[in-house]
């Protein structure tokens, strides 16, 4: 089978924003060892990391569209990574600490990009180690389910069927459906509907017409799309757009 990328579409769709803060209110913390070298990373999608480590070199809030990003919602509450024996990760952590301390022009943009690289490394580590038991991260960690999930992410406008997705995963329909629910926590078609509505919300916020968004994601009518959107978000597309614009 051809190579595929489990993270790129998610990274393109959800922008990471970094705001340096004091430890105790952070979603990302870099701590130093006794010699001043980066030794560990603490990462939490819910924030509020509490730590008594006096050698904190960097702490920041990470905003990765928590209300809409399905990957962010599936992460463990706290990830603790030791990087003392990883020169590349240490070099990246040093660069982040230096950039934050220097506070030069463009630092905010540079920190966003550097922290995005760091988060990607953390996600790779989590998928490789299989830390997630259920949810999207667990699905992306599975070599069979991830092919179907990436197909949905990359081609949301395709008229996917459960049979199509099972074929992509290399599984029988019954085994695919059973495994998907067991690992991801919902049926393949339920996840596809949720993913399309997440993208639809983004497109509406960007200013796309309701009718165009409905057609883009396979809804037969604007009314049908509006009903599905309201069931998921508790408000119609027009109401949501007005709230964002207010």
Automatic annotation (TrEMBL):
Top-rank taxon, per record: Bacteria
Residue span, HTH araC/xylS-type domain: 146-243
GO MF terms, alphabetically ordered: DNA-binding transcription factor activity; sequence-specific DNA binding
Annotated keywords: DNA-binding, Transcription, Transcription regulation
SUPFAM superfamilies: Homeodomain-like (SSF46689)
Pfam families cross-referenced by the UniProt entry: Cupin_6, HTH_18
PROSITE patterns: HTH_ARAC_FAMILY_1 (PS00041), HTH_ARAC_FAMILY_2 (PS01124)
Record-given protein name: Transcriptional activator FtrA
Species assigned in the record: Roseovarius albus
């Amino acid at each position: 089978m051809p190579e595929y990328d489990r993270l790129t579409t998610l990274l393109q769709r959800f922008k990471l924003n970094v705001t340096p803060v004091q430890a105790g209110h952070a979603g990302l913390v870099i701590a130093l060892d006794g010699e001043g070298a980066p030794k560990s990373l603490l990462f939490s999608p819910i924030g509020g990391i509490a730590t008594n480590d006096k050698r904190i070199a960097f702490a920041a809030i990470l905003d990765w569209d928590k209300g809409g990003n399905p990957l962010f919602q599936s992460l463990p509450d706290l990830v603790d990574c030791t990087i003392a024996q990883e020169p590349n990760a240490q070099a990246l952590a040093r660069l982040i600490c230096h950039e934050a301390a220097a506070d030069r022009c463009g630092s905010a943009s540079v920190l966003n990009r550097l922290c995005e690289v760091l988060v990607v490394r953390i996600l790779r580590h989590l998928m490789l180690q299989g830390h997630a038991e259920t949810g999207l991260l667990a699905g992306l960690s599975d070599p069979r389910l991830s092919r179907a999930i990436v197909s949905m992410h990359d081609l949301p406008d395709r008229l996917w069927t459960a049979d199509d997705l099972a074929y992509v995963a290399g599984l029988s329909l019954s085994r695919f459906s059973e495994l998907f629910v067991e690992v991801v926590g919902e049926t393949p078609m339920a996840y596809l509907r949720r993913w399309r509505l997440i993208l639809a919300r983004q497109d509406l916020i960007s200013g796309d017409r309701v009718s165009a968004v409905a057609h883009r994601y396979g809804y037969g009518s604007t009314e049908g799309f509006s009903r599905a959107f309201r069931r998921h978000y508790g408000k119609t597309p027009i109401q949501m757009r007005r709230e964002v614009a207010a």
